Amino acid sequence: MWIDTHCHLDAAEFDADRDAVRQRARQAGVGLCVIPAVARAHWGAVQALAHRHADAYALGIHPLYVTQAHEDDLLALDDALTEAKGDPRLVAVGEIGLDYFVPALCEPDMRERQWAFYTAQLKLARKHGLPVILHVRRSADGLLKGLRQVAVSGGIAHAFNGSAQQAQTFIDLGFALGFGGAMTYGRATQLRALATSLPATALVLETDAPDIPPHWIYQTAAQRAAGQPQGRNAPEQLPRIGQVLAEWRGLTGTELAGITQDNAARCLPKLAWL
Q1: Contact at 8 Å (CB) between 99 and 137?
Q2: Which residues on adjacent β-strands are paired with residue 93?
Q3: Where are the domains of the chain?
Q4: Which of 29, 31, 140, 175 gives 162 a disulfide partner, CB atoms 3.0 to 4.6 angstroms apart?
């Protein structure tokens, strides 16, 4: 069974055919999807989707959404985590983290605001005994700094694209590293090197659907300008993404599916029950 450890099935891009998308993924062998929330307004939707499709979910405030968030959203998150304490489908606090790629978020005041929301959510994860799903975009060192200050019970560094040294530090802290469509591009040499050289026990697979499409559904700017729509990523792509990685590592798809399933269940322990 394949596990898509990061899929935004609640996104508007799936409004027209969400149930059909999930059914196609299940037919392709994706037995579980983890649906992380990005803002308070999304918490109810991801919870409902996880229950409707027998999947899993996480609750949190994404760094791209801290510009819209309010301080009382953190209190509301604490309440939501308390209310869902007995829900086996709540597997993590996420998607949380830091983003130092978007220029507007790199201004000093926004860095400070991101940091405040990130560390506050780490504290909530620790309080509720949950792992975290981390947004990592040019921010690995900052995230690791936070984890040293506020220890949590591991989790997943989503869409990891840092250095080998940073990767090892996350691994040492009990994290798995998420790999998906980005590694399928020929130019992604550093990412491919990480995906093939890191211990297999450190890897989980994800789509980040509808974002980060693999190369076979990506449309270039020129193609989009010519009227071709951008390919929408979907969880049904995960087995093919996994097969690419399996071939690089000299494994069968079945072997890699089993390894990454075990890794996901180790880093998000409630998945073992599901």
Answers
A1: yes
A2: 59, 132
A3: 2-273
A4: 140
